[in-house]
Design a protein that fits this description.
- The chain is α/β, with parallel strands linked by helices and 129 residues long.
- It folds into 2 domains: 53 residues, 2,3-Dihydroxybiphenyl 1,2-Dioxygenase, domain 1, CATH 3.10.180; 59 residues, 2,3-Dihydroxybiphenyl 1,2-Dioxygenase, domain 1.
- The protein contains 2 helices and 8 strands.
- The chain is globular, with a radius of gyration of 16 Å.
- It starts with 12 loop residues before the first strand and ends with a strand.
């Protein structure tokens, strides 16, 4: 695998501050992700990594810094699906916090909708072309 002059070759994890880690694990498992790491560290903290069934980039469900509040953010994480309507329907009927409708802006923007995790962080789901 090629790397840059700095030696960096890929994105391995995206960290999402998560105060309620067990709720977040259930949320990502409902999306089809699998928990690959759940390790205690630094006293009462846990380092948790979840991964989608395809691909190598995971999401670390990291505890917030001590004494800090977690404010929901737009994560910038984009998930892909082969059938946006079926995915939207399945997640909505599963009780997840998704937009009311799939957004269709026309080419070159793919059909998409936003999804919110238990903390309120948003992720985008787009249809693969």
């Amino acid at each position: 695998m090629g790397t840059t002059a700095t030696g960096i070759g890929r994105i391995s994890l995206v960290c999402v501050p998560t105060p309620h880690q067990d709720e977040a694990i259930k949320f990502y498992e409902s999306l089809g992700f699998e928990k690959r790491t759940d390790t205690p560290f630094g006293g009462d903290y846990r380092w948790i990594e979840v991964y989608p069934p395809v691909g190598t980039t995971g999401i670390a469900l990291a505890p917030p810094q001590p004494g800090s509040e977690v404010t929901p953010v737009e994560t910038g994480i984009t998930l892909t699906t082969g059938d946006i309507d079926a995915t939207h329907s399945a997640l909505k009927s599963g009780g997840l916090d998704v937009d009311a409708e799939v957004s269709r802006m026309g080419d070159p923007v793919p059909p998409m909708f936003w999804l919110r995790d238990p903390t309120g962080h948003t992720l985008m789901v787009v249809e693969e072309r």
